[in-house]
Design goal:
It is a single chain. This protein is α/β, with parallel strands linked by helices. It has seven helices and six strands; from the N terminus they run E-H-E-H-E-H-E-H-E-E-H-H-H. It has one domain: Flavodoxin domain (Rossmann fold, 3-Layer(aba) Sandwich). Strands 1, 2, 3, 4, 5 and 6 form a six-stranded parallel beta sheet that branches. It is globular and about 65 Å long. The structure holds flavin mononucleotide. The site of flavin mononucleotide has 12 residues, from loops.
């Protein structure tokens, strides 16, 4: 069973993000899920002496170490992302910049929301994911105006987001394919155990 770190990128008190979170969580039954809610983290702004790509797992604070271990334990990531000024949130960039090996050789899939379903934020995230040596999953879930307004009118999430079920299914199929492939490849790349003396 693959372990997903489900990252919630919005840190706002009154965020919309809780709707996609409530919708997707019960649908991830075939996975172990760790909800990494950026609102709950006290991660400082990036201030490490060397880039994480050069010096793996060199944490300078307890908050960094704790999050690093959670990301390390994941076989892949699903990010629920908002869109601010055609980009993704600063809190999310801070997390992405803090780590490297914890993310690399793993898939990352996206659930976005906004005027165009968060797609501009998602496209930027795909570029960043490649630099982190990740596999961005092709299909994303894009929550648009009709779903947004249905939620505002009090329609339950399952009903409001019903038109997105197919995209979610295809996204999870892509995610699982890449999680299978990359988990096997990471395992094969581990150094062989030393024979007992
Ligand atoms: C500063 C700011 C910039 C925004 N820019 C965009 C944008 O570029 N595209 C978009 O679709 N929505 C934009 N919005 C609207 C957000 O998508 C909306 O506020 C959303 O609810 C934010 O996610 P959250 O409620 O989970 O924090 C913007 C909102 C703010 C406050």
């Amino acid at each position: 069973m693959h372990r997903i770190a489900l990252i919630v990128a919005s840190t706002r008190t009154t965020r919309f993000a809780d709707n996609p979170l409530a919708w997707i969580l019960p649908k991830l039954t075939g996975f172990e899920v760790d909800v990494v809610d950026l609102r709950d983290l006290n991660l400082p702004y990036y201030d490490l002496p060397t880039p994480p790509a050069w010096s793996h797992r060199q944490y300078s604070s307890e908050a960094e170490r704790m999050l690093g271990e959670r990301l390390d334990a994941a076989d892949g990531f699903i990010v629920i992302t908002n869109e601010f000024n055609h980009g993704y949130s600063a809190a999310l960039k801070n997390v992405l910049d803090h780590y490297f090996i914890e993310f690399s050789h793993k898939p990352i899939a996206f659930v976005g929301y906004g005027n165009v379903g968060g797609s501009r934020a998602i496209e930027q995230l795909r570029q960043v994911a490649i630099e982190l040596d990740m596999v961005p999953v092709k299909v994303s879930v894009n929550i648009m105006g009709p779903q947004f307004f249905a939620i505002r009118e009090g329609v339950p999430v399952d009903e409001a987001f019903a038109p997105l079920e197919d995209a979610l299914k295809r996204m999870l199929e892509g995610f699982t394919w890449w999680a299978d492939a990359t988990s096997a490849a990471r395992l094969a790349a581990l150094p062989a155990a030393q024979p007992a003396a």
